[in-house]
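Researcher: Going back to the complex we discussed earlier. I've cleaned up the inputs and rechecked each line, so this should be the final set. Can you rerun the prediction on the complete assembly and write out the structure?
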Amino acid sequence: MTDPLRLGIAGLGTVGTGVIKIVQRQANMLSARCSRPIEIAAVSARSRDKDRGISLSNYAWEDDPVKLATRDDIDLFVELMGGEDGPAKAATEAAIGAGKDVVTANKAMLAIHGQALAEAAEGAGRVLRFEAAVAGGIPVIKALTEGLAGNAIDRVMGVMNGTCNYILTRMENAGLTYDEAFAEADGLGYLEADPNLDVGGIDAAHKLTLLAAIAYGTRVDFGAIALEGIGAITIEDIRRAGDMGYKIKLLGVAQMTGRGLEQRMSPCLVPAASPLGQLEGGTNMVVIEGDSVGQVVLRGAGAGEGPTASAVMADVCDIARGLRVPTFGMPATALEAAPPASAASPARYYLRMELTDKPGALAKVATVLGEAGISIDRMRQYDHPGDNAPVLIVTHKTARPNLDDALARLPATGVLEGAPVALRIEDV
Amino acid sequence: MTDPLRLGIAGLGTVGTGVIKIVQRQANMLSARCSRPIEIAAVSARSRDKDRGISLSNYAWEDDPVKLATRDDIDLFVELMGGEDGPAKAATEAAIGAGKDVVTANKAMLAIHGQALAEAAEGAGRVLRFEAAVAGGIPVIKALTEGLAGNAIDRVMGVMNGTCNYILTRMENAGLTYDEAFAEADGLGYLEADPNLDVGGIDAAHKLTLLAAIAYGTRVDFGAIALEGIGAITIEDIRRAGDMGYKIKLLGVAQMTGRGLEQRMSPCLVPAASPLGQLEGGTNMVVIEGDSVGQVVLRGAGAGEGPTASAVMADVCDIARGLRVPTFGMPATALEAAPPASAASPARYYLRMELTDKPGALAKVATVLGEAGISIDRMRQYDHPGDNAPVLIVTHKTARPNLDDALARLPATGVLEGAPVALRIEDV
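Model: Rerun complete. Updated structure for the full complex:
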């Protein structure tokens, strides 16, 4: 048996507690699998006295995570505090500076500072790993970085925010409005302190941009993501989509196009019979399409103590076993700054709008779409008890600028009530 | 850039050809991801002159794979010949003896000789990797060995023979008989030269036993698998199962029980709405359940040039990157010989039988089941144009020995026509 791998863990919330439980409960199994013991040397958190249901008495305590990160008696710093800056970043930098490897679950920090932190770690001969930052327990970082390393990646997609998928599923299955489903998710504690991180798509976008960097060997570029939340989705949209054989999902998509790297996080229509369409509730799914492998689908719990701790432990076991991979799969200094694609790749779109119930209203809308170069696959006016006529349009494949052009010109027709909803139909 | 990794590839069928295509087409990408070039030094196959649509002119040729495996100018021997013994095993042993790492897609060889080969490789300080041997392009060996290394595995399940799933799907969707669907699969070239490898479940069982060894740290024990093919399944079974909300799949299941390691490969009923139930056609799926992660589902192409070559390249890239893991996740000498579970864990069962159309026939069957300690959840006699009455029974949870006892005693009732079909209902 060789030397133990000694961990310093900062952040003892759900995930940190889960990691400690695994290390305590599975000590023998981990030691057999890694051919060396995994031990916790020291921990740090905001509150020392909080009852976490685990004993910390065998571990040194540090109030200051930066101090923890640089202790002589740790080999690996496990950052589970969260937050894109502040103590998480300071402690990660300190750990690297002190020659420690780092494992983190912090998608926000990596989405913003991933390039700099990866360069720092690799420059110091250390690894910075983050399996737990994307899609919880699904070992997707490993699958993409290593398991599919022989593939040029055509597209990577994912439903990676369980809260949004829960809200959309509840709207569909229980007939709740968006506000009702949101309130229910809030009552269950599913929402982040800033709910916009969830329903605005930011959390999922953090994850998407990390996947994109690995898939395409590019520098993390969170700012380049075309981002749209689920707040405008109504139960009507879900029903209309369902009538056509689709489900609405907050879907992240990254693909390299002739115009640059396309990164989108937005509600999309996906075929109801596809694995993505069949995904219900809080579960996550990542779909990876490679030039050799075709389509690989990974599904599992995207959050929670056990699943996220499982992902942290995957990185810990890798490091214990001497498996050392650059943060984004190739040396950080070799990652390229991909130009962001100026517009999304062409697609069919679902459009829903309310028209004033006047003769010729529909014709005016059709004319604007035609002038914008958009041809219409289906157009349907629904029964309407009130003054306005709900209209559903499915376009043929069109470029996003054409659609934006049409959306900009529609208000001038004077026949629209409120803003139209435009959702991409993603072929999966 | 460091030294290239030099491959010697034996076997230039579909998979070997696919590997060469990737190495040729993606040289720059592979070199960037692995921080060193991947080169092919030499190849071997039965026929040198066959047109494979690729140029071999830059590679040395060996008629004898053993000679290839021991050449001084290769670092890694890639065994893609197949067959559990013969040249594949001889060349693998020779490669290890000559200090080469080995990557293989050969599930049959590993299911029989995996323990000895892993010990030989590890004793020589070499690695023997086999991502391509299980579930084609799905990176499931890596997921189980590394990505879920922090989990005690509760159960690992899989639909891992695309041909069987194709036959069952065609029976259901096109109303074909088993023989018709079999003939169709044969015409499409989906069947192995010995079709029993597919429809008898042997090929899938080879894969299952490799997953079990990793999941539970046990020695590969192919002989301990309770094996049953799909030949007895009728379209009636598929329809009856469908009526109850189930699909029939050739399902492999490995789980550690209080009575030992249970390994089963048999047609099972799974809920139609589950990921396994939704799997159609030739696609593969592996479901891994861990104590921390919960359920993780992996889905992708289980065969074919691109997907299988993708899996081979995952192992090649690992070795190029210096990622070295023991064959079954922990040192082969530390793997334990698990006692095979004497019987499958209790489950509900689906029973279909034909009864002679005499008064009291159903009562006799019910009596036998009761005497065997099996309680009945549902029992239904179907309309029948002929002399016999088809009867469908769903039992409550029962132990397999009780079921076997009942099945052994049923013929003595004198009311049975033909043999009953008994299928496990697997809760997934």
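Model: Worth noting: The mean pLDDT of chain A is 95.
Researcher: Good, that matches what I expected from the previous run.
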